[in-house]
Amino acid sequence: MASGSGSGSGSGSERWSEGLETEAAMAMETTDVELLKRAWRNEKAAPEILQFEAALVLRAREQIQLLEETLEEFTENGVDDLVVSLYQMDLDRTLFLLRSYLRIRLQKIEKYMIHISKTNLWNRLSEQEQRFAKRCTDIMEKHLEQSVLSRLPYGYQSILKQSISSEEDDMVPEPQLDTFVFCKTKSAVGAFQLDDTGDEIVDLVADDLYVLRYKSIKGLVEGGRIDLV
Amino acid sequence: MAGQSNPDLSVFSAPEVEFLAEDEMVEIVPNIRMEALNMICGDYGPFFPQIASKVPLWLAVALKKRGKCTIRTPEWMSVERLTQVLEAERESPREFQPLPFHYVEISRLLFDHAHDDIPDLYMARSLIEDIRDVRFHKVETGLETISGRTHAVKLKNLSAMEVNIVRPFMVRALQAFYKHDSPHLIQQPRAMGSRQPQVVDRGPRRDLRPR
Amino acid sequence: MAFSDLSHLWHRQTNKKWIYLIMYGRRASQLLRELACSETGQLTTFNSDAFDQVIKECNEHNLQLQSLIRKIEDENLDIQTTRNEDHFGAVIHHLSLIRNKHCLMAYMYNRAETIQSLRWKVGPVLPQEIQEKLNYSEEEYFKNHSAAIESYMSELDLDLTVDMVPPKDPYIRVRVLDDIGEVCLGDHSISLTKHSLHFLRRTDAEPFISQGIMEEFLE
């Protein structure tokens, strides 16, 4: 089944530029399922939410819909059960990946909604996710407000700050970027600086497995140069 | 969220690792004629009796279950190769031999669903088990060498299932060492109105030890 | 995580004054102990007695804090620079209050996380025995949160509550363990005699498997 072009939908077109990596990968005959699997794996393993793969999700959904229609035709035309069941499995596998990918993102939004909405992570969400995050935040705030905060003394009622004397928001759960992740290099990255000071350099060779601090390889993950496993 | 426990510690469930392994390619020999399958995950076939064809493992197993093909045992699963690998694993206590990233799951799926296609089934099965044991032992002893100076670890050739098993302990250990090595990450009590100056997080010193 | 990371308060000082602080924080820490003792994903009944008492403690701390500050001001001392016993007394009440707030928030927040996970595990309607464990605000929270997920899914036109685990072959090879007899499956009927092998839809086979009269057949 050929990959759709991903054009045609007006929404979020500014995000298409993010798909350049994706386009490049497609040129190397990587299927969308392969790309979806990578996005799913990275999203599962990364502590913070990653850029929403808008174009990829759109293409995957087009292909899913097409296959669903084809399967209906098959059944009507009495195509061999064997063939139907094989295509059904292909469909089930793709649907699982898509659903699980979207679910992990919702889970991260649920966990870090306040942090996400205060930082530029907000731009990584799809429009629908942004609406979901907004709604979740309102609901959580209302809940904590009526059960705890409104019953505390003046000066201690903020959801973001411990008390009025805190200068910054010190009560917001944030993803732990210091955590260690397992990652695989796709191609040689070369000498890579692990910290700001340049004290620690590691030579990341192709197809090797490392355990590193997420913070130090964040850029490589976002740029699609390294995969989390 | 159901089925998705603590994201820091167990990233993939065992069924999810198996799901990933099912996309690895294997060779089948069909006994039927079937048109090409143009699937979302790729195009496979057309299939002709006695003509080998490459398909993902899940498709191979599905066809095998329906009695439509035999699965060719991958080259690395031959008794000869496995014997070599086992020997090499035993000889090099600090290195892992190159095997497919999903060797544990692939071999298990084949043992479960295509046992009659595997030459020397029992031998192959016990070799894989031995290899797994030797490697797990190596992983365990490797963990003992993690110290306050270990802030990056290279695990050449470690497989998916091994990664999954070692992950919770490894991440927690590295994190603990990292934290204790960075005094500024250990919170100090704050007095009213006074705040610590913000420290730029440079992280502690790292030491990359090849394993 | 700011909501729960308070360990530093416990270790720092062995000064006797801190013993009072530990007493102050005790009830709140019981709430957290309750969280820590329950299994992940499991809820205990909302402890409204302890919860209300901690809220009360907070307000008492505040009264004490305010009166100490007033005392410093009445003595015409500079509130910013004074470091007398009243100042340190006020600090202790402030920190105790913050600690209690942390515990209350951690209690509610962690429960809320469990409650939102129920939408995925249990569905949009909670069974009575779970419902009984929630307080009013939590019941409302569950409904609102479910509705948020619902509306996200309907915007997407995709149900995300299915496919929680990776899919398997929709067909399965089974061995019949008991004489079941003639059974109608979909548009055809088959005879399920003891020891016979069949290739069935997983969904058709599952009821028999759970009754223990059929098993998946792996060679």
Automatic annotation (TrEMBL), chain A:
<dbReference type="InterPro" id="IPR008591">
    <property type="entry name" value="GINS_Sld5"/>
</dbReference>
<dbReference type="InterPro" id="IPR036224">
    <property type="entry name" value="GINS_bundle-like_dom_sf"/>
</dbReference>
<comment type="similarity">
    <text>Belongs to the GINS4/SLD5 family.</text>
</comment>
<protein>
    <recommendedName>
        <fullName>DNA replication complex GINS protein SLD5</fullName>
    </recommendedName>
</protein>
<keyword id="KW-0235">DNA replication</keyword>
<comment type="function">
    <text>The GINS complex plays an essential role in the initiation of DNA replication.</text>
</comment>
<dbReference type="InterPro" id="IPR021151">
    <property type="entry name" value="GINS_A"/>
</dbReference>
<dbReference type="GO" id="GO:0000727">
    <property type="term" value="P:double-strand break repair via break-induced replication"/>
</dbReference>
<dbReference type="GO" id="GO:0006261">
    <property type="term" value="P:DNA-templated DNA replication"/>
</dbReference>
<dbReference type="Pfam" id="PF16922">
    <property type="entry name" value="SLD5_C"/>
</dbReference>
<feature type="domain" description="DNA replication complex GINS protein SLD5 C-terminal">
    <location>
        <begin position="175"/>
        <end position="229"/>
    </location>
</feature>
<keyword id="KW-0539">Nucleus</keyword>
<dbReference type="InterPro" id="IPR038749">
    <property type="entry name" value="Sld5_GINS_A"/>
</dbReference>
<dbReference type="Pfam" id="PF05916">
    <property type="entry name" value="Sld5"/>
</dbReference>
<dbReference type="GO" id="GO:0000811">
    <property type="term" value="C:GINS complex"/>
</dbReference>
From TrEMBL, chain B:
<dbReference type="Pfam" id="PF05916">
    <property type="entry name" value="Sld5"/>
</dbReference>
<feature type="domain" description="GINS subunit">
    <location>
        <begin position="76"/>
        <end position="173"/>
    </location>
</feature>
<dbReference type="InterPro" id="IPR036224">
    <property type="entry name" value="GINS_bundle-like_dom_sf"/>
</dbReference>
<dbReference type="InterPro" id="IPR007257">
    <property type="entry name" value="GINS_Psf2"/>
</dbReference>
<feature type="compositionally biased region" description="Basic and acidic residues">
    <location>
        <begin position="202"/>
        <end position="211"/>
    </location>
</feature>
<feature type="domain" description="DNA replication complex GINS protein PSF2 N-terminal">
    <location>
        <begin position="14"/>
        <end position="71"/>
    </location>
</feature>
<dbReference type="Pfam" id="PF25005">
    <property type="entry name" value="PSF2_N"/>
</dbReference>
<keyword id="KW-0539">Nucleus</keyword>
<comment type="similarity">
    <text>Belongs to the GINS2/PSF2 family.</text>
</comment>
<dbReference type="GO" id="GO:0006260">
    <property type="term" value="P:DNA replication"/>
</dbReference>
<dbReference type="GO" id="GO:0000727">
    <property type="term" value="P:double-strand break repair via break-induced replication"/>
</dbReference>
<protein>
    <recommendedName>
        <fullName>DNA replication complex GINS protein PSF2</fullName>
    </recommendedName>
</protein>
<comment type="subunit">
    <text>Component of the GINS complex.</text>
</comment>
<dbReference type="InterPro" id="IPR021151">
    <property type="entry name" value="GINS_A"/>
</dbReference>
<feature type="region of interest" description="Disordered">
    <location>
        <begin position="186"/>
        <end position="211"/>
    </location>
</feature>
From TrEMBL, chain C:
<dbReference type="GO" id="GO:1902983">
    <property type="term" value="P:DNA strand elongation involved in mitotic DNA replication"/>
</dbReference>
<keyword id="KW-0235">DNA replication</keyword>
<feature type="domain" description="DNA replication complex GINS protein PSF1 C-terminal">
    <location>
        <begin position="168"/>
        <end position="218"/>
    </location>
</feature>
<dbReference type="GO" id="GO:0000811">
    <property type="term" value="C:GINS complex"/>
</dbReference>
<keyword id="KW-0175">Coiled coil</keyword>
<dbReference type="InterPro" id="IPR056783">
    <property type="entry name" value="PSF1_C"/>
</dbReference>
<comment type="similarity">
    <text>Belongs to the GINS1/PSF1 family.</text>
</comment>
<keyword id="KW-0539">Nucleus</keyword>
<protein>
    <submittedName>
        <fullName>DNA replication complex GINS protein PSF1 isoform X1</fullName>
    </submittedName>
</protein>
<dbReference type="InterPro" id="IPR036224">
    <property type="entry name" value="GINS_bundle-like_dom_sf"/>
</dbReference>
<dbReference type="InterPro" id="IPR021151">
    <property type="entry name" value="GINS_A"/>
</dbReference>
<dbReference type="Pfam" id="PF05916">
    <property type="entry name" value="Sld5"/>
</dbReference>
<dbReference type="InterPro" id="IPR005339">
    <property type="entry name" value="GINS_Psf1"/>
</dbReference>
<feature type="coiled-coil region">
    <location>
        <begin position="55"/>
        <end position="85"/>
    </location>
</feature>
<feature type="domain" description="GINS subunit">
    <location>
        <begin position="82"/>
        <end position="156"/>
    </location>
</feature>
